[in-house]
Specification:
single chain, mainly beta, Tumour Suppressor Smad4, 6-stranded antiparallel sheet, 3 helices, globular
Length: about 180
């Protein structure tokens, strides 16, 4: 009924592009609405070297690195300890998982930044929105950028993002005094 009557709302959401480079050549590219993940594919941690805007950031021995959009910030990234980012905020979340490093907290990165993740271990997996895309090999590079085109989502029931968060996570809104 809402679609037929035109009583729905449209929301623009950021998406994430990825490119997989092997020996300097792009062998795969794609996009994700929620997150792109470089993760271990066996019982050993992976060795990753991360750069932002062509500048070294850190080397992480970790289980995975998540790069999430504001939409993805309430999915896997949130479960892994990342922040909730409102959809209107143009930002990416970069989050190492179970990192063996002194500097391993979630980071909020400019949507204009280019994030490069170099695999220095023998293998890992590349996932986009929870779907395994490909097996990574030693010295592969994954480049992540925000997409210039937004994804349009239709909302049949009007609600603010705050209301959706309260409902999704069953947040207590009554107050500590029972009000």
């Amino acid at each position: 009924d809402a679609i037929a009557s035109g009583t729905f709302s449209i929301e623009e959401r950021m998406s994430l592009n990825y490119q997989l480079l092997r020996a300097g050549k792009v062998i795969e590219s794609g996009w994700a609405l929620n997150e792109v993940l470089v993760e271990r594919n066996d019982h050993q941690m992976i060795d990753l070297f991360v750069q932002i805007d062509h500048r070294p950031l850190s080397r992480w021995w970790c289980d995975a690195v998540i790069c999430a959009t504001p939409t993805g910030s309430t999915a896997y990234a949130y479960s892994a300890g990342g922040p909730v980012v409102w959809p209107e905020v143009d930002a990416l979340v970069l989050l190492p998982l179970a990192a063996h490093a002194l500097f391993s907290k979630p980071m909020v990165v400019s949507p204009n930044s280019e994030i490069a993740i170099d695999l220095e271990s023998d293998s890992a997996d590349l996932n986009a929105d929870g779907i395994r895309r490909t097996k990574l090999q030693k010295n592969d590079r994954v480049i992540l950028t925000s997409d210039k085109e937004d994804v349009l989502l239709a909302h049949i029931k009007p609600a603010t993002f705050t209301d959706r968060i309260v409902a999704k996570f069953k947040l207590p809104v009554e107050g500590w005094r029972g009000e």
